[in-house]
C-alpha cells in the first residue's frame, strides 16, 4: 500500500527486513554525515543483529552518527538499556567508533540529561534526523511516548521525560516535534500481537486517535512501515 507520505512493505522474516533496511541506508547515507536515531525493542534488536552483517562497502558506516529516539533511565550496562542493546547487536559488531555514538546517558539525573541531550541533538543534527527507527507498542506508543502522555508528542521541546504507564520506569524520549522533522522514518513492526494496533493506526479505526504512533507524520519526510506477515495480517 502506498500513500503520498507513507508506504507499507511486508517481508517474510527479520533477515529480509534487515536486507531492506540495509539497502535504504546504503542508498541514503551518501552525504558526508548521516544521522540515525535508533529505537529500542525486540524487533529493532533482531533487525540490528542481521544488519550488522552489512559490512563495508555496502554501507559507509564511518560517516554515520548514531543517536537514540529514547532511553530508559538506567546505567549503560543495564539489561534494560537501549544503548546496550544497540551496542551488542550492531555497533560493536560493525566496529563503530565511540565518537560516532551519541547515547542518552540513562545514568544521569533525568532533568539534567534531558537538557544535555537536547543540546547534543540540536548541535549535531539541527533537529533533523536523516533516518529514524521507531518501534510500535501494542498500546500504540512509539519511542517512549505513551498514550497517557500525549503532551510529549505536541510539546515544543526536543527531548522530554516520560514514565512508563505500567512499570513506572523513567525514560528520556525525543518528542513528536523531532520525530516529525525526520527525513525518513522506518517503523519496524513484527509479530501477530501487533496486527490489530497496526490495522487501527493505518486505517484510522477504533481508538487510533489515542495512539501516539498515529501522529507520526513527517513534515517533509516519509514513513515506511516495515512489517512481517504476522504483523501485516489485517492490512
Ligand atoms: C523502547 C522502545 C519502544 C519499542 C516498542 C516496540 O524503549 O521500548 O523505544 O518504543 O520500540 O515498545 O517494542 P517491541 O518491538 O519489543 O515490541
Descriptive tags:
six-stranded parallel sheet; 9 strands; 7 helices; 30% helix; binds 6-phosphogluconic acid; three-stranded antiparallel sheet; 235 residues
CATH architecture annotation: 3-Layer(aba) Sandwich
CATH topology: Rossmann fold
What spatial order of strands do you see in the largest sheet?
Answer: 1-9-8-5-2-3
* Mean model confidence by pLDDT: 95
- Biggest sheet descriptor: 6 strands, parallel
Helix and strand run: EHEHEEHHEHEEHEHE
Helix content: 25-40%
Annotate the secondary structure layout.
Elements: E1 6-11, H1 14-28, E2 34-38, H2 42-51, E3 64-68, E4 70-72, H3 82-94, H4 110-125, E5 131-134, H5 151-154, E6 159-163, E7 170-174, H6 176-179, E8 184-189, H7 195-203, E9 222-228
Parallel strand pairs: 1-9, 2-3, 2-5, 5-8, 8-9
Antiparallel strand pairs: 4-7, 6-7
Helix pairs in contact: 1-2, 2-3
This protein binds 6-phosphogluconic acid.
